[in-house]
Write a structure and sequence with these properties.
- A hairpin with a 2-residue loop joins strand 2 (47-51) and strand 3 (54-58).
- The chain has helices spanning 4-21, 29-35, 69-72; strands at 25-28, 47-51, 54-58.
- It has one domain (4-76).
- The protein is of the alpha+beta class and 79 residues long.
- A 3-stranded antiparallel beta sheet has the order 1-2-3.
- Helices cover 37% and strands 18% of the residues.
- The chain is built from 3 helices and 3 strands.
């Protein structure tokens, strides 16, 4: 069985590849901030995606359960 860390990393890479196939430039968070001299502080962001000049922060989840809006709404600033 794979460790949680390894599964999470694979999920991030799979999401990055998916975004790239959808026409986004996608970067792992730690590489994106390092290239810009920013803090490597854990913000919960796993990827940065860019398309048409817009930047998107992506948080990857590797859950094997059904999720609901309640699980996601904090990412949208809702309580």
């Amino acid at each position: 069985m794979q460790s949680t860390t390894k599964r999470n990393r694979l999920s991030e890479v799979a999401t990055k590849l998916y975004l790239e196939r959808q026409g986004f430039a996608a970067y792992l968070w730690h590489k994106w901030v390092s290239q810009r001299g920013l803090s490597l502080q854990d913000t919960g962001i796993n990827l940065v995606a860019q398309k048409d000049g817009d930047l998107y922060a992506v948080q990857c989840k590797n859950w094997d359960i059904e999720i609901s809006w309640r699980d996601l709404k904090t990412s949208y600033g809702e309580k």
